[in-house]
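Posting this for the archive.
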Amino acid sequence: MAPLAGAMLPTGVMLPTDAMLPGDGRHASRHTHHADHVTCAKGETTMPIIRVNGAGLYYEEHGTGPETIVFAHGLLWSCRMFDDQVAAFKDRYRCIAFDFRGQGQSEVTRDGYDMETLYEDAAALFIAMRLAARRPDLVKSLVLLETSPDPEPAENMPKYRQLAFIARWLNIGLVADRVMPIMFGQKFLNDPARAAQRSQWRQRMSKNHRVGVTRATMGVITRRGIYDEIAKIHVPVLIIVGDQDVATVPAKAERVHERIQGSRLVTIPGAGHTSTVEEPAAVNAAINEFLIGL
């Protein structure tokens, strides 16, 4: 099956040192309002929420380095997708990870799940190829993981609509077993030592808000392609893809690499569509080498 998560880019964006960010009173867009902190229902946890384009987006901030990396997760996941990367880089960089609307701990809004609105969300809270092509002033460098600038192939639409319908009206858990082989490679799925980790990520998928994740899925599968735009990206770009990725196959990453002049392409052995979780050490090493060379 082709990507469920190919266009909601799992991404790391290196921002200029003077970029405007949540948490310090400097916000990057006229769409961004002040960062609020709201208390969860049980009154036990305080969640950082920033109001962007009419949506309350959950974010986390770690580290206090002079430069900032912003992590934007893939469809069906949350900022937890980048826990291993934040842990690796927070001692040298300010790391900000956030949940897109309708996913993770962000607000489930009635609309705003199309790629163009999510691009505006990303511009305000820092989707990455769109952001780098259209707002180069906000981006110093770019890391693209398991993503494609193309629209969803027409042959995939019926089955993805069916999965979204089941998730919305019945139960997300009913489609989890069909989605796990899309999101992860065979090495991860068949390793007995990682059974607990597989269970954890299946549970995280199943805990998605069924309305929010359905709207997010429809935004992804009805997206407009931007292949013609990405040639405008002139910042340093690292492209990462797993050699077992069946959602965004390596050939798609090669196509992005050919289109973005000067980009670097790294293939992660043994990784599927969620390489940050499946092979975190290899992903961190590739990102670290890229950042050191900037």
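The chain has one domain: 11-144+152-234. The mean pLDDT is 76.
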